[in-house]
Design goal:
Length: 451
C-alpha cells in the first residue's frame, strides 16, 4: 500500500507564484501522520504551499489535513484524486469542527486527534473495509515522534517546531482550540520532548513550541522549563497572559532560554473582553502591567489583537496601535475576528443573523482579509480597512525602528537581528495574503461530492 500525505495551501490568485513567506514552516500534522503509518506501508508527502502535486502518480490513499482557511483547496485536491479513483481521507481542525461538510468531499473523515484513529483507518483501508467517519472517544496520550524525514525535499523557514502540550483550559468564545479540545490540556512526557529537541536542534535556529498555551498547566510547564535550562536552547511559544502574574514562571522561562511568547491580547476594551469570555486579561493591572513584567524578565511579546467586537470603534483601534508601539511589541497581529465554524462566536453571530455568507471559507466571493459578518457600529469594509491600516502602520519602517529602539530588543544583537528580519518579512508579506482567494483560482474543475 502507498499513502500520499498532503498539506494544502489557503489559496492562489490566478498565475500567482510563491506563497506567504511567514507561513512556510514545517507542517506538523503530516509528519505526525507519517509516524503513525506502519513501516511496511510506503508514504510520500506533498506540501501544496511549496510544490506542485503530481495527481497522476500512482497511490492507494490520500490523507489531507484541513483547516477552515484551507478547506476549499483541500476539496479541490480531493476532487482531482477521487476523479482518478483514489480514495481520500481528511482530518484536522475543520474536519473535527465541521465533519458533515467535510464528509461531502472525503471518503472518510477523522474527527479529533489522529493518534488513536489513523492506524485503525489505515488497517481498514488495507482490509477493504473503510468507515465513513472515525471519531475519537477520548484524548490520546502523545507518544508519537513526528517523522520529519518527509520534509527533506522542501525548504522551510529556519525554525524547529516541537509540541509539548495540546489544548488550553480557557474558553474564549472565538477560539477553535477550546472547541476542538473542549477546554482540556494534555502533555507529552518531558523525556520525549527532550529527545526530540536533541534530534531537531540546529545551531542558530530557534525552537518553536507550537502549544496553544504552554502555561495552561503551570506546574507541568515549570517542570519542562527546569529541564530545559541545561540545554541552553532559545525557544518561543504561545501563552495566556496570566503567566505574567507568576514571577517564578517568568524567571524559569527566561532561564530556560525563552526569547518571547505570543500572547492573545485581543482587545484593550473591557466590554469586548467580557463578550469573548476573556476578562482574565484585565486582572492584576491588566495588559500594561503584564507587558512590563514580561520585559522585566527579558521576554519579548508577539501581541495578537482581534478587531470587530461590538464595543470596538475606529478611535479605540487607533489607540490600541499606539499602545502596541509604546509597549514595544516584537511583532503584532491585527486581525478582524473570524467566526470559525464550531465556535460559540460562530453560533452567536449565526443566531443574530449577522453572518454574510453561509460558509465564507467556501464562497467564491470571499477573499482573505474580508469581513464575513456584520460588525456593530461600522461597515464590514470600514473594519477591513482599519485592520489593514493597523498592519501597514505597525509594519511601517518608522514604527519598526521605534519598537526596535526599546532595550528589551537592543540587549541581545542576535535577537535584534531576528526582530529586524521578521518585521521586514511581515512588512513585505502584508499584501501577499490580503485578497487571496480561498482555493486555487487556476483550478478549473468541479468539486466532486461523495454520492
Ligand atoms: C504552528 C501554527 C501555525 C504556524 C505554522 C503552521 C505550519 N506548520 O505551516 C503559522 C504561524 C505559520 C500558522 C499560520 C496560520 N494559522 Co496556524 N496554527 C499553528 C498551531 C499553533 C499549531 C499547529 C500544529 O503544528 N499543531 C500540531 C499538530 C500535530 O496538531 P494538529 O494540527 O491539530 O493535528 C492533529 C489533529 O488535528 C489531527 N489531524 C490533522 N490533520 C489531519 C489529517 C488527517 C488525514 C487525519 C487523520 C488527522 C489529522 O491529527 C493530528 C495529530 O493528532 C495551530 C493550533 C493547534 N493546536 O494545532 C494553529 C492553527 C492551526 N492555525 C490557525 C490559523 C487560523 C492560521 C492562519 C490562517 C492565521 C492567519 N489568519 O494568518 C495561518 C494559515 C497558514 C496556512 N494554513 O497556510 C487555526 C486554524 C483554525 C481552524 N478552524 O481551521 C489554529 C487551530 C489556531 C487557532 N487558535 O485557531 N499557524
Ligand atoms: S487562552 Fe488562547 S488558546 Fe486558550 S481558549 Fe483563549 S484564545 Fe484559545
Amino acid at each position: 500500500m502507498h499513502v500520499t500525505l498532503i498539506h494544502p495551501r489557503v489559496g492562489r490568485r490566478a498565475g500567482q507564484k510563491g506563497y506567504v513567506r511567514t507561513w512556510k514552516m514545517e507542517p506538523m500534522p503530516p509528519a505526525t501522520l507519517a509516524a503513525l503509518i506502519p513501516s511496511e506501508v510506503e508514504r510520500c508527502f506533498f506540501d501544496d504551499r511549496m510544490e506542485a502535486i503530481p495527481f497522476d502518480a500512482p497511490t492507494d490513499l490520500v490523507a489531507i489535513s484541513v483547516e477552515t482557511y484551507t478547506a476549499k483547496r483541500a476539496y479541490q485536491i480531493a476532487s482531482e484524486y477521487r476523479r482518478r479513483g483514489v480514495p481520500v481521507v481528511m482530518g484536522g481542525f475543520h474536519a473535527t469542527l465541521c465533519p458533515d461538510e467535510v464528509e461531502r468531499y472525503a471518503d472518510s473523515v477523522v474527527v479529533g486527534e489522529a493518534e488513536l484513529l489513523f492506524p485503525e483507518l489505515i488497517d481498514d483501508y488495507r482490509a477493504g473495509t473503510p468507515k465513513r467517519r472515525y471519531t475519537s472517544a477520548s484524548r490520546p496520550t502523545h507518544k508519537v515522534r513526528p517523522d520529519r524525514s518527509i520534509y527533506a525535499h522542501n525548504r522551510y523557514l529556519p525554525v524547529r517546531l516541537v509540541e509539548f502540550a495540546r489544548g488550553c483550559r480557557f474558553s474564549c468564545d472565538f477560539c477553535a482550540i477550546q472547541s476542538f479540545y473542549k477546554s482540556t490540556h494534555t502533555h507529552r512526557d518531558i523525556d520525549q520532548v527532550l529527545e526530540e529537541i536533541a534530534a531537531v536542534r540546529r545551531m542558530g535556529q530557534m525552537i518553536f513550541f507550537v502549544d496553544d498555551n504552554i502555561n495552561s498547566s503551570p506546574g507541568k510547564a515549570k517542570e519542562l522549563m527546569r529541564t530545559l535550562i541545561p540545554l541552553k536552547i532559545r525557544w518561543v511559544s504561545q501563552s495566556s497572559i496570566n503567566v505574567a502574574w507568576d514571577k517564578e514562571s517568568l524567571d524559569l522561562m527566561r532561564r530556560s532560554g525563552c526569547q518571547g511568547v505570543l500572547v492573545g491580547l485581543e482587545s484593550l476594551n473591557p466590554d469586548n473582553l467580557d463578550a469573548m469570555d476573556k476578562g482574565f486579561n484585565l486582572m492584576k493591572g491588566g495588559p500594561s502591567a503584564a507587558m512590563a513584567a514580561f520585559r522585566e524578565h527579558g521576554l519579548r511579546v508577539y501581541g495578537t489583537f482581534v478587531f470587530g467586537y461590538d464595543h470596538d470603534s475606529p478611535e479605540g483601534m487607533r489607540s490600541t496601535l499606539d499602545w502596541a508601539r509604546d509597549e514595544a511589541l516584537f511583532i503584532g497581529a491585527f486581525n478582524h475576528i473570524t467566526p470559525f465554524p464550531g465556535t460559540p462566536l460562530f453560533a452567536r453571530l449565526q443566531e443574530e443573523g449577522r453572518l454574510l455568507y453561509d460558509a465564507w471559507w467556501l464562497d467564491e466571493g470571499y477573499r482573505y482579509g474580508e469581513i464575513p459578518f456584520r460588525p456593530a457600529g461600522m461597515s464590514p469594509e470600514d473594519l477591513a480597512d482599519i485592520c489593514a491600516e493597523a498592519r501597514r502602520v505597525f509594519y511601517s519602517w518608522p514604527h519598526i525602528f521605534r519598537r526596535a529602539a526599546h532595550r528589551v530588543h537592543l540587549r541581545d544583537p542576535w535577537m535584534l537581528l531576528n526582530f529586524l528580519v521578521i518585521n521586514a518579512m511581515h512588512h513585505f508579506d502584508i499584501d501577499t495574503r490580503m485578497g487571496m482567494p480561498m482555493g486555487d483560482e487556476d483550478w478549473k474543475g468541479e468539486l466532486l461530492e461523495v454520492t
